[in-house]
Amino acid sequence: MTQQMHSPILVLADQAGSRLTSLARQAVTLAASLTSGDVVALSVASVPDTAALAELGATRVLHADLGAAGHSSVVASDAVIAALGTDSYGLVLASSDYRGREIAGRVAALTEAGVVSGASSVSFEGGVLQVGKTALGGSWSMGIVLEGQTPIVGISSGIIDEAPVASPASLAPEPLAVELSAEASVIEVVSSVADEEEGVSLADASTVVCGGRGVDGDFELVRSLADALGGAVGATRVACDEGWAPRAEQIGQTGLTVTPNLYIGLGVSGAIHHTVGMQSAAHIVAVCDDPDAPIFEIADFGVVGDVAEVVPAALAIIEEARAQA
Fold it and tell me: Could you give all domains of the chain from N- to C-terminal order, each with its CATH number?
């Protein structure tokens, strides 16, 4: 049986609009599995998503009403430091995205705490907090022990499956006063524009469908499978260079690093500059017409075939299975 700490855990509960991000949902779920104490969610959103927080196991919600300034990682890190003064926490969990890493790094520097980003596992064994992560393009797996001052851990997507509690409690946000630092005080958010991307965020997605050279420009095929699975669309560098997909969807050494629960590569050969950005996925599926493609060396399940034939067949099976469910 997995051991639990007794101290409360503080979770930075970031939202995209009115809803928790996928990574924030996973962080709350993970916190609930790690402690028998309180799971305290810190929200800097205008209106905290208390329903989702309660559903996932949060027991308290601290609300720092920072307005548009809350979008700034410097301002948000001041809120985390203020929250740390409300209790003796055993751990702080954040998302390992750009914002989360900036916040975790600043808070760790100011509080002299240990910090790990990109965690693929977090456990509490023998009274010690242990964090797992990969390095050097996924070729090394590391086990890190965190002790001392309240540690801060940034989690990667796919670290845990969301597990709503059976009888969620009703949560009322508790106002949190935040004294802004000199650095945060000079920041003014002039405007904020909502992300216009459709579908699931690539950074947060638990399922990623990626198109490579082998799709020959047919990214509608990629998107159709991603939509059917509730996943996000990714692309290799070649696909972006050819203009088949926007640069924001590029995965790899010069793009995003993703760690979804499921990665599906369509027409992806598996060049190292791409695989360093996805090979830490929990499950890897590859469809490629080259049986000698390097992607098959790291794939859990591979299909040698033409994506233009395999994907429509897979979509038909998915549709049939859902119709019978």
Answer: 9-185 (3.40.50.620), 207-324 (3.40.50.1220)
Q: Find all residues with CB under 8 Å of 47, minimum gap 6, and list them.
A: 18
Share of the chain above pLDDT 90, in %: 64
Q: Residues 41, 48: contact at Cβ < 8 Å?
A: yes
Contacts of 167 (CB under 8 A, 6+ apart): none
- Residue 71 to residue 285: CA distance in whole angstroms: 36
pLDDT tens, position by position, 192-216? 766 555 556 787 788 999 999 999 9
d(CA 31, CA 50): 16
Element holding 61 (H helix, E strand): strand 60-63
Token output for 176: 């949190």
User: What residues contact residue 260 under an 8 Å CB cut-off, 6+ apart?
Assistant: 157, 158, 205, 206, 207, 208, 231, 281, 282
